[in-house]
Design goal:
globular; about 35% helix; single chain; five-stranded parallel beta sheet; Rossmann fold; alpha/beta; about 20% strand; binds flavin mononucleotide; 5 strands
């Protein structure tokens, strides 16, 4: 089982996650359980303890910073120690240095891999790139890649 924790303020990360979920359900083999990918949305009133390794998706806030709730989640309990990878939605209008920078900051702070940076709700190519990235963790979970 692969756990994906995400934060979305205005809905773009949520839309990306929905597309990833749909692609997984469409492409998975009949033997792959539908709960091989589990999604956890964090929000102001919902900062859970995730006591298992997880992949995280978030967005980048004003001038290249980590969103407050994402930061609070990583600082909570052992969450930060369980993060495997981080991806960030962003907008290239913010410039190369600030684009998706939350992912760089979190990857560095928590020794996590950088899975992906994508713009807004992401393209089909972004969804495929993220699925391929998850596939690289196949040996650590029961997930059978639908892309194989
Ligand atoms: C106030 C504000 C600041 C932002 N700052 C950045 C930034 O520094 N770098 C970046 O790549 N995107 C930045 N963005 C774009 C968001 O990361 C992007 O719209 C993202 O898709 C939002 O995700 P969400 O809709 O799930 O909250 C900013 C957006 C807003 C509204």
């Amino acid at each position: 089982m692969l756990h994906i924790v995400y934060e979305s303020r205005t809905g773009q990360v949520k839309r990306f996650v929905d597309k990833v979920h749909l692609a997984f359900l469409r492409l998975k083999s009949p033997e792959t359980p539908s709960d091989a990918l589990v999604f956890h949305r964090i929000s102001k009133g919902n900062i859970p303890n995730i006591s298992t390794p997880f992949h995280m998706l978030t967005y980048t806030d004003g001038f290249g910073v980590v969103p407050e709730i994402t930061q609070a989640f990583l600082d909570h309990g052992h969450n930060g120690r369980n993060i495997l990878s981080i991806g960030s939605s962003g907008n290239k209008n913010w410039g190369t240095h600030q684009y998706g920078r939350a992912a760089d900051i979190i990857a560095h702070a928590w020794d996590a891999q950088l899975s992906l940076k994508w713009e807004l709700a992401g393209t089909v190519n972004d969804v495929v790139a993220f699925m391929k990235y998850l596939h690289s963790f196949e040996n650590e979970s029961r997930l059978t890649s639908p892309l194989a």
